[in-house]
Backbone:
């Protein structure tokens, strides 16, 4: 039996929706706040909604920060969703400013208000792929996904960008580097194409995270 | 992107849709309908519990949980939500948002409390209103499914709801609801121009043209409809294709 998919339980509001989506495309994941489950996971999904400070505090108080950093450092498959994306960066502008996990270079900034842009950015918006990746394989560029957020990742290193979205300005709505993939949108609320993100991620993890060219060929 | 939202009136776990809130007809099983509409390209779903007695909340909880297990687009649950604890139950069962109407008027602080606890993006305030015949350009808010006048001005109440933390407004015209002759675009526009949050148009959809009018003339961000979808007059896909042809941005990718 292969190692399970683990959805990290730190009180995130979308935890159950993410778990249900994984159950729908694969099998019921292990939903856990136990560092031992992180050590034995075959793939990890970090969900999240709400404030960066609450997220970091909840991860920290449950003793999850070190195990998650070690897991990622060891090159094992990781998917962050919404706040689970934002937590990966160095710092968030939320509240008085919040140190985050620092796995990826970049900062999380508040959408400036004013003009036509409503904040939060809420609802369906399109994502254009800027390169191929197994996790987005088989999903057409320009597909719409469901977003709910007031902060966005500012990532100067464009090699991390996997998908981009325009909301007043263009921001990276999917980022990826090596074993880490993260989406600002909610795949679990984005219908068939969102479910495909989870299915692709799990397939990619099980296959030992092959590079884009081979895996994308297999999926299309 | 403009959203198309099928609405289900649910009574004891079954979908019904009234004509002007009086005559009720059965249009089927909510979870099966929800799955069908997701597949057809619905952007969101709204379930309104119109069950008169509060003894059957468990039926609604089961329906919400079953929907969350099988449907992977956002859905809103309204009806019978009178306290923050009611909101919490629905959100934990898997609803993306909760909608409050009469309870928001009886206890406006419920909007603030819900927004504080769960975020404005979870809190929809539903407003049922009717034209004031003697005063063109004025609409009065009604509660209890449109039975009780409140004396509140719909535009002013909309603004107060948003100030208190509503993330979205679901605006139903009691005059046009059930008649399939078009939305009340005057009221929609007055409210849309007065608030900064999305407005969902409700009441009166007879076809795609009415929806296009609500989204352009009425300046709504989303259109809600029940009967025309439940009885197969139009499919969601047909509506979206017609809106797209009219130059309105919609998500057109179901089953692609």
Residues:
């Amino acid at each position: 039996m292969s190692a399970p998919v683990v959805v990290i339980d730190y009180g995130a509001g979308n935890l159950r929706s993410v778990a249900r989506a994984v159950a729908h495309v694969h099998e019921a994941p292990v939903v856990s706040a136990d560092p031992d489950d992180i050590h034995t996971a075959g793939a990890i999904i970090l969900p999240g909604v709400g404030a960066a400070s609450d997220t970091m505090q909840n991860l920290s108080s449950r003793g999850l920060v070190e195990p998650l950093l070690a897991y990622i450092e060891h090159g094992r498959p990781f998917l962050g969703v919404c706040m689970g994306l934002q937590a990966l960066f160095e710092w968030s502008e939320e509240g008085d400013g919040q140190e985050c996990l620092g796995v990826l270079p970049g900062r999380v900034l508040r959408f400036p208000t004013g003009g036509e842009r409503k904040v939060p950015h809420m609802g369906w918006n399109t994502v254009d792929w800027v390169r191929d990746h197994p996790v987005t394989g088989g999903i057409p560029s320009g597909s719409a996904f469901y977003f709910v957020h007031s902060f966005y990742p500012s990532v100067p290193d464009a090699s991390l960008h996997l998908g981009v979205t325009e909301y007043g300005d263009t921001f990276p709505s999917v980022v990826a580097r090596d074993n880490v993939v993260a989406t600002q949108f909610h795949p679990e609320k984005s219908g068939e194409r969102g479910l495909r993100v989870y299915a692709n991620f799990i397939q990619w993890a099980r296959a030992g995270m092959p590079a884009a060219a081979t895996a994308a060929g297999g999926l299309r | 992107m403009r959203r198309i939202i099928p609405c289900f009136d649910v009574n004891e776990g079954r979908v019904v849709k009234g004509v002007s809130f009086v005559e009720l007809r059965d249009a089927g099983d909510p979870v099966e309908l929800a799955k069908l509409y997701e597949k057809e390209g619905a952007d969101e779903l709204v379930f309104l519990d119109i069950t008169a007695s509060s003894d059957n909340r468990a039926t609604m909880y089961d329906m919400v949980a079953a929907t969350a297990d099988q449907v992977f687009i956002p859905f809103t649950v309204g009806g019978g939500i009178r306290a923050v604890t009611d909101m919490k139950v629905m959100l934990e069962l898997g609803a993306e948002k909760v909608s409050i109407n009469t309870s928001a008027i009886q206890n406006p602080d419920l909007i603030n409390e819900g927004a504080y606890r769960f975020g404005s993006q979870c809190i929809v305030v539903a407003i049922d209103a009717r034209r004031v015949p003697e005063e063109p350009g004025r609409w009065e808010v009604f509660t209890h499914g449109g039975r009780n006048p409140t004396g509140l001005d719909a535009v002013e109440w909309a603004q107060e709801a948003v100030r208190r933390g509503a993330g979205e407004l679901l605006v139903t015209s009691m005059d046009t609801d059930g008649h399939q002759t078009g939305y009340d675009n005057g009221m929609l526009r007055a409210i849309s121009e007065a608030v900064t949050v999305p407005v969902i148009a409700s009441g009166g959809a007879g076809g795609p043209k009415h929806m296009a009018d609500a989204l352009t003339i009425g300046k709504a961000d989303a259109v809600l409809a029940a009967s025309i979808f439940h009885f197969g007059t139009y499919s969601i896909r047909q509506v979206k294709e017609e809106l797209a042809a009219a130059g309105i941005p919609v998500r057109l990718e179901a089953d692609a």
Summary: The first helix of chain A runs from residue 15 to 25.
